[in-house]
Specification:
This protein is of the alpha/beta class. It folds into two domains: about 270 residues, Metallo-beta-lactamase, Chain A, CATH 3.60.15; about 180 residues, Rossmann fold. The strands form four sheets. The protein has a seven-stranded mixed sheet with strand order 6-5-4-3-2-1-22. It has a seven-stranded mixed sheet with strand order 7-8-9-10-11-20-21, covered by helices on one side. Helix 1 links the parallel strand 3 and strand 4. The longest helix has about 30 residues. It is globular and about 70 Å long.
Length: about 450
């Protein structure tokens, strides 16, 4: 049995792990690298393995840093089966088609830029929409939580609820090879506990080896209640100053959770009933519709609310902006608007236009409610940049900046330790974290052996 690491090693994007066991080669996730342009170029590099040789991909969830290179895998020869939960399959379709569209647009933009300089515009997208659709044909069996899937007579996969986003899973592999039995758990991304909408993550069973994310392995989150209060205070204060609230928002889970809290704030009288909220993200709008189709993933409170005919993510002042013209019209609003737009790290998408029109205004506020990787525009602003570059212009940062980390969809250090404890694993590999987070979490783990693998490293299990 051999395990090798091909992404999310000393970094939080590009998750991709290869297990060779029981006569098959399977991947856990195949995600995009995200962040600076230099990081993004890594997506086109060789995987570190032959795509044609892979028999299965087990997909933990539909975030781009976990599924975003699947079309490239197929493009390079993968002909096997992709297995995920039903909700993940729906969300992955949405995410991958959108990613292909952005890849095509980016390639056209770079080609025009080169052409203006007199250079040959021979740049192609990483993959196009047709290739993304071809990838979707490889989704096969649907995983149901806690029900084993037999890949071979000697290899079984069991998905269990990771509580991270809709349909997210951790995966247990029971493997027998040459008389040797191993239980291997891949955490995927572990969700925070006591969140609205989704259930808490399911702890792992006893296992020999755990491969665990460490995104927030070096810190504790602010409790949820004070975070909600801070969000409400930020909105009320901004309206009093005569500005807008811009919330860079991840389309999957974070947008829906923020809508949940805004609805609750209005119902409880903590936010003005006349408040106008604009969900300016076609992907987030579609993802919200997919959420409504999968109430089986919700926690008891949200499920009961839907069953009683009350949508937990809807309210009177909510507006969906699918068309580009509707998005552009928002930039004529000078005060009183809450605008949720992607991308969450401000690396692309409509939020960059809203930042251009609001960052320089002292009356406005920018509220970050999610993780921002090194090299992203969101991280620059959070770290205190006085000026940033947007669309060829230098924009001064005068808006009030809020960073509210209590909304994270990732478990913090103590939650990760609590999640890991039931596994009693003697060997743990830490991935999906920056160096400080990895090393901090490693010091607190009770495993006999804690390994921080580098990209390309392989280990015998």
């Amino acid at each position: 049995m051999k395990l090798s690491f091909h992404g999310a090693s000393f970094g939080v994007t590009g998750s991709c792990f290869l297990l060779e066991a029981a006569g098959v080669r399977l991947l856990i996730d195949c995600g995009l690298y995200q962040g600076s342009r230099e990081i993004e170029w890594e997506n086109a590099e060789p995987f570190g393995f032959d795509a044609k040789s892979i028999d299965y991909v087990l997909l933990t969830h539909a975030h781009l840093d976990h599924c975003g290179r699947l079309p490239l895998l197929v493009k390079r020869g993968f002909r096997g089966e992709i297995i995920s939960t039903a909700a993940t399959r729906e969300l992955a379709r949405l995410v991958l088609i959108d990613a292909a569209h952005l890849q095509e647009e980016d390639a056209r933009w770079r080609a025009r830029k080169l052409a203006r300089k007199g250079a040959k515009p021979d740049l192609a997208p990483l993959y196009d929409i047709v290739e993304a659709l071809a990838c979707l044909d490889h989704f096969g069996r649907t995983a149901r939580y806690d029900e084993p899937i037999h890949l071979t007579p000697h290899l079984t996969a069991t998905f269990f609820d990771a509580g991270h986003i809709l349909g997210s899973a951790s995966i247990l592999l029971d493997v027998e090879e040459k008389g040797k039995r191993r239980r291997i758990v891949f955490s995927g991304d572990v969700g925070a506990s006591n969140r609205p909408l989704l259930r808490d993550p399911t702890p792992p069973p006893p296992a020999d080896v755990v491969i665990m994310e460490a995104t927030y392995g070096d810190r504790l989150h602010k409790p949820l209640a004070p975070s909600i209060a801070e969000l409400y205070d930020a909105i009320r204060d901004t309206f009093q100053r005569g500005g807008n609230v811009i919330i860079p928002t991840f389309a999957l889970e974070r947008a829906q959770e923020i809508l949940y809290h805004l609805r609750a704030g209005i119902e409880r009288g903590r936010l003005p009933r006349s408040m106008q909220v604009f969900l300016d993200s076609p992907m987030a709008i579609s993802a919200t519709e997919i959420f409504r189709r999968h109430p089986e993933c919700f926690d008891e409170e949200a499920y009961a609310r839907i069953k009683s005919g009350h949508d937990p993510m809807a309210f009177g002042g909510l507006h969906y902006c699918r068309e580009a013209a509707d998005s552009m019209a928002l930039n004529r609003i000078v005060s009183g608007a809450v605008i949720l737009a992607g991308s969450g790290m401000a690396t692309g998408g409509r939020v960059r236009h809203h930042l251009k029109h609001n960052l320089w205004r002292e009356q406005s506020s920018i509220v970050f409610v999610g993780f921002a990787a090194q090299g992203t525009l969101a991280r620059q602003i959070i770290d205190g940049a006085k000026r940033v570059h947007l669309f060829g212009e230098e924009i001064p940062v005068r808006a009030r900046i809020y960073t509210i980390n209590g909304f994270s969809a990732h478990a913090d250090r103590d939650e990760l330790l609590a999640w890991h404890r039931p596994s009693q694993a003697k060997r743990t590999f830490l991935v999906h974290g920056e160096e400080l987070a990895l090393k901090t979490l490693a010091r607190h783990l009770s495993s006999d052996e804690v390994i921080l693998p580098r990209r390309g490293e392989s280990f015998t299990l």
